Amino acid sequence: MPIKRFYPTKDTTITNAEIISENADAKKSNMGQSDSLEIFRVSSSASPDNYEESRVLLKFDASEVSSSAASLDFPLADTKFYLRLFNVKHDNTTPSAFNVEVGDTESDFDEGHGLDMETYKDTGAANWLSSSLDTLWTSPGGGTSTSLATAYFEEGTEDLLVDITSYVSNSWCANPIVGNAGIMLKLPSSYTEH
Fold first, then answer.
1. Residue 161's closest CA among 54, 96, 86?
2. CA dist., res. 135 & res. 51, Å (int)
3. Which of the 8 DSSP states describes residue 168?
4. How far is CA 29 from CA 106, 121, 180, 189, in A?
């Protein structure tokens, strides 16, 4: 069976992290041009009952996926679609035994040109508050999301691999223009790390 890879046309990390030295937050920061994506959820240093967290937003060209699926020699019903992201090895402490939720985004978003994932000084959209310069999310953090899959990380260093066949077939392939806002990855809101 042939394998075809599709790469995101847009990707970014959005966060509500605090900028301690500035006594501000990163809700308007943009990291669309960073070479990696981050998902985290930690207690706020200023208020332990609040959490700093991030989300990853991905956008694929649904028309490319749809036309590729239509040109295959076997039925779409026999085609499987997986979302796969690769872990970036680093020297920082890595959590273990956690889930990552994969969902769709409520609307399209601008990738932006930010690079700074440490002090969050690059502002622009998409960010925690808005999907583009002129459009706010319905709720901060990327708006509402419909769950598509959950990935479990035992060691915390695994690659992400989830089956999103139903979503791609029923959304991207059925209506590539309307059916593709994007994909969001986040930690479940039930996690309360201290």
1. 86
2. 24
3. I
4. 20, 6, 24, 21
Of 103, 70, 116, residue with least CA distance to 185: 103
109-125 tens-digit pLDDT: 999 998 888 888 888 88
Report which DSSP code applies to 17. Answer: -
Identity of the amino acid at 124: G
**Predicted structure pTM score:** 0.87
Helix (H, G, I), strand (E, B) or coil at 136: strand
Peptide bond into 62 cis (omega under 30): no
**Do 9 and 108 contact (CB within 8 A), yes or no?**
no
Residues 83/37, Cβ–Cβ less than 8 Å: no
Q: Which residues of the chain have a pLDDT value below 50?
A: 192-194
Instruction: Give dist(CA 64, CA 109) in Å, integer.
Output: 18
| Pairing assessment for the beta strands 24-25 and 41-43 based on DSSP bridges | unpaired
Q: What is the rounded CA–CA span in Å between residue 92 and residue 98?
A: 17
